[in-house]
Amino acid sequence: MMEGEGVLEELVKELEERGFIVTRRGFIEGVSGVKHYFDFIVEDPRSGRKLAFSVTDRIRHEHVLSVLAMRIDTEIPHIVVANEVDPSVQDLLRKCNVFTVSFNKPKFSMLSSLPSKDLKQFTKTVASEILKFLSAIRSAEA
Question: Residue 101 in contact with residue 80, Cβ under 8 Å?
């Protein structure tokens, strides 16, 4: 099993239990015609809203351009889950509908070794943050 795979599977399970449709390892075609790869595509079946979901080791200033290019081209809000997120980058991305979830741990394996009740609580917390993000986007578009 890859590092962090258990954590991500728990997160997917939590989102599916909350009624979202989750596509693993999917592509979204941007307005440019380029197909962008995402680790997960999360869809709210009630509204049809989609979120692009990427998993990476870290997000720093050198990653901002590629993340924003994907966000702008796909016209879909983007969630990036990373071990480490530079705080100034997090603020910048948030202004462009890119939400970051940082484990603030040097390795995913530290989370994978959590007792199952702590892992479940962690995924519930992340899922709740994603729901807040969806609500904020809906409010801004209204």
Answer: yes
**Residue 41 lies in domain:** 5-141
- Which residues make Cβ contacts (< 8 Å) with residue 103, sequence separation at least 6? 81, 82, 83, 84, 110, 111
The CATH code of the domain that includes 46 is: 3.40.1350.10
Q: Which two tokens stand for residue 107?
A: 């390795």
Bigger pLDDT: 69 vs 105: 69
* Residue 85 CB contacts under 8 Å (≥ 6 apart), including other chains: 58, 59, 100, 102
Check pLDDT > 50 for residue 2: no
Q: pLDDT tens, 103-124? A: 665 444 334 444 456 667 777 7
Q: Report the 10 Å Cβ neighbour count for 88.
A: 11
For strand 21-29 and strand 78-85, is the pairing parallel, antiparallel, or unpaired? unpaired
Give the pTM: 0.70
Task: Extract the tokens encoding 61.
Answer: 């200033």
SS3 at position 53: strand
Count of structural domains, the chain: 1
